[in-house]
Structures are given as C-alpha cells and as structure tokens.
Design brief:
The protein has about 300 residues and is α+β, with helices and mostly antiparallel strands. It contains six helices and 17 strands. The protein is globular. The protein binds zinc ion.
C-alpha cells in the first residue's frame, strides 16, 4: 500500500454531498470524437458515470449526442447487467429505483421502500440466520462492452490537455467492435457493503506521479454503496513500451486514503474481486456470493426480508 501512496496522487474527487457538478467546456467540441458543437444546437449534459451507479450529480458538457448514444446503447446496457446483482444486494438506486435482480434459477432480489426481499428456492446448506449464500446467473452480456462503459468516464475526467496521450483508448471507445489496446483488462472490485462511507456515491481519479513505468497512467475509483470499482487507463506511450518489450504488467489497488480507513472500521477487510473483462463474448456470469447481516434475521422458506 505504501508503494502506491508514493506512486499516485488524487487529481479529482466528487461525492454526493458536493452537489451538482458539470465538467468539460460548453460550446467547444466533443472530447471523444472531436465534433465541433454547432451554434444554437445543444448537446444534452451527459452522465459521467451512468445513472444506475446512483450518479445524478456529475455531468459533462463536452460529450456530443452521437457519442452519448453510442456509449449508452453499446456499453451501458452491458455494464448494467454486469453490476445488477451487486447493485440489487447493496441497494443502489438508478433512474427507476433499485434494480430487481432475477436469475434463471429462481433467485430474486427485490427492493421496496422498507427493505430488501431475497427469494431463493435453492437455499444452500451454508445459509444460516446471519447469512445467505446466493447463486446468481446474470443476464447475457459482453464483459468487454461493460469494460468500455467503465473506461468512458475516465476519459471524461482526464484534464483536456492530457487527452492526446490516450489516442488508442479513444479509438477503442469510438469503435463498438474495437479491442483494447492492452490486455487483459482487469477490473478490481473492493466490496465492503457493511462499512459504507458517509456519501453513497463518489468518484476518484488518481494520477501516476512518475512517468515511464508499467503502472497505469490514471486509475479511476468509482464508489457506490460499499463497492469500489478500480479501473486503470494506460497512455499510448506505456502501451507501446509494454507491447515492444512483450512484458507482463501488474494491476493492483491504489490507496484509498480516508475512504479505506473508514471501511476498515467495519467488521472485516474489504473483499477483493478481480474480473477479467477482456472477452467480447456474450456470457451469463455465475456468481456465488454470501450476503451477511450483522443482526440476526429469521429466514423463512419464502425468503428473507431485511432493512439493509
Ligand atoms: Zn462525439
């Protein structure tokens, strides 16, 4: 951890309690495709992170309508399917409320105003009065398309004078069939739903303090309801250096400074999940996750209801 504290510095942070923030220059050109904004023809403000990450405060003014359509239609739907289970369990509220997660095996996680109801016909032997082990099969989605949905917000946050360093990533985002310039694409998630921060939603951007190493040029961390999504982005120069030398590279967790300290006061260390997001295939991920409660709850045959 000390190593990362030396390597990275925070360059952007926005939390729910900071209020509404619009980034990017109005009346300029689209930072993704370069299209110039025409006089008198507006682009809608774009969500930096999708609304289903509980973002209704952080917007960008320099994403054109066609890029917004492309990202929304091609990537966000896959990202929503990838994250639906986590968001249903932890109660992340999108435009239409908390999503209901339904799995082919009958598992259903549904939120109402008074709490969450989990219906699990498969109830496993490990389940007891404080925990449930759930087997969830996601709706088919492309992990790589979801990955692009996570990379796109970083591009919105990078200072505009540095965007030229990320041409390869820009091309990847603009081409729905485009592959990643660097593989594998590893998504790290630190999950600690028991130790929530004051704010339910935060976005951090960390910049590498020194150039020329294999570690990502920027790492974005999206925090929502106890889950930290870590997404790295490499500069063109790094990509060229790494491919030329045919080196492997490491992705690790950057420091979360105050945030991680807050989480450590929870019952245990955050659980780390690492997902390889490289594949473009449509997959139904099976996730087995144990959901635990600090207080005892009665679990009936019908399922469990709990105020989370
Ligand atoms: Zn555009």
């Amino acid at each position: 951890m000390g190593f990362y504290e030396k390597l990275y510095r925070p360059v952007f942070c926005h939390s729910k309690s900071d209020g509404r923030l619009v980034i990017g220059k109005k009346n300029s050109h689209c930072r993704y495709c370069g299209q110039t904004k025409q006089e008198g023809r507006g682009w809608n403000l774009a969500h930096v992170l999708p609304a289903f990450f509980e973002n209704n405060e952080l917007f960008s003014a320099d994403e054109c309508s066609s890029c917004n359509d492309l990202f929304g239609c091609q990537y966000d739907d896959h990202l929503a399917k990838l994250t639906k289970f986590f968001h249903a369990v932890t109660g992340v509220r999108g435009r239409k409320g908390v999503p209901t997660a339904k799995s082919g095996n009958g598992l259903r996680i549904e939120h109402a105003l008074d709490g969450v109801t989990i219906t699990d016909p498969e109830r496993t032997a490990e389940s007891d009065d404080k925990s449930l082990t759930l087997r969830y099969r996601s709706e088919p989605h492309s992990r790589f398309a979801a990955w692009k949905g996570l990379v796109k917000p970083i591009f919105a946050l990078i200072p505009s004078e540095l965007l030229g360093e990320f041409e390869a990533t820009r091309r990847m985002l603009l081409n729905p069939q485009g592959r990643s310039p660097i593989e594998p694409c590893m998504l790290l998630i630190a999950a600690a739903p028991w130790g929530r921060l004051k704010d339910k939603y935060s976005v951090f951007l960390f910049e590498r303090a020194h150039a020329g190493e294999d570690y990502p040029r920027f790492i974005a961390v999206y925090y929502v309801a106890g889950m930290f999504y870590h997404v790295p982005i490499y500069s063109d120069k790094q990509i060229a250096d790494i491919s030329r030398a045919n080196r492997t590279f490491e992705v690790s967790i950057p420091p979360l400074t105050d945030s991680i300290e807050t989480l450590k006061t929870g019952p245990r260390e955050p659980k780390l999940l690492q997902i390889d997001m490289t594949s473009q295939d449509q997959v139904s991920d099976e996730q087995t996750i144990t959901v635990e409660w600090i207080e005892r709850h009665d679990i009936s045959e019908q399922g469990l209801s709990s105020p989370l």
